[in-house]
Amino acid sequence: QDHVCSLAKVPFRGAPCSDAAGSQVPYATIMKQVNSSLSGLLWDEGQKAPFYEYKDSVGQFHQVWFDDPHSISLKAAYVKSRGLRGIGMWNGNSLDYSREAVAEQQTQAMWQALTP
Q1: For residues 63 and 34, what is the distance between their CA atoms, to the nearest angstrom?
Q2: Measured between alpha carbons, how far is residue 15 from residues 9, 20, 34, 74 in Å?
């Protein structure tokens, strides 16, 4: 409700909605699912990250947080402006490396976002 995650706290992380409570989703799945989600693409200004919400086939609600070229480029620009030594993303293997035109464009945009 009101885009507030209601997952129970996970003792290992000690915070609600931690990655210990969820699972990784491939970027291709996210890009296919976001446009048909309940919420559409949402943006959290504090995290500088997009997210969306959907209901699965058994009626459970889910919230998916991810990085896209916009959020990665903001983080890369921050690193550069502070003179830090580098930036990386969690798992480049989650990008879609198929030969589909849309997938190639999305993957290229993600890698380009790392170099402001």
Answers
A1: 11
A2: 5, 9, 25, 25
List the structure tokens of 2. Answer: 């009101």
Instruction: Tell me how far the alpha carbon of residue 6 is from its chain's centroid.
Output: 18
Are the C-beta atoms of 16 and 24 separated by less than 8 Å?
no
Claim: this prediction has a pTM higher than 0.70: yes
d(CA 4, CA 105): 32
| Each residue's pLDDT tens digit, 36-95 | 898 999 999 999 999 999 988 998 888 898 999 999 999 889 999 999 988 776 677 778
Residue 32 makes CB contacts below 8 A (sequence gap 6+) with none
* Of 8, 115, 113, 102, residue with least CA distance to 50: 113
